Amino acid sequence: MIRSRRPPAAPDAELIRSLAALLTETGLTEIEFASGDYRVRVAREPAPMAAAAASAPALSPAPPEPREAPLSANGVDHPGTVKSPIVGIAYLAPQPGTAPFVQIGDTVAEGQTLLIIEAMKVMNQIRAPRAGRVARILVEDAAAVEYGAALMLIE
Fold first, then answer.
1. What pTM did the predictor assign?
2. Is the C-alpha dihedral spanning 47, 52, 58, 59 positive or negative?
């Protein structure tokens, strides 16, 4: 679904394609671009398979064989790795010159803000997926991050 507040006579097809590609890349369902009074909103409906799977009877698959996962040098393979859900600029503190959200050794609660990632002038809070101790911070303040990049390691 595409909605624009500008008259539909002159939609920017390249911009719409770029936004649609960004939706697919990041897994988001909606994105809006604004420049002055020009606004373009691109949204997609969740995949119908998800609704069908929710209504189907739950089948429990056989549990996977436990195995040791090797820890890579940067912690990307560790189960406590917090990965970037979007492309943007990572900031470790709420504002320049203030204390960071977390430091190595801090104990965090599930849902606590760890850092923010700025993407298209929007500040996105990255929250702890689980409670634990911050073992490593794998990104520098104000560094560009890619989708899926390891940001922190929570043990």
1. 0.52
2. negative
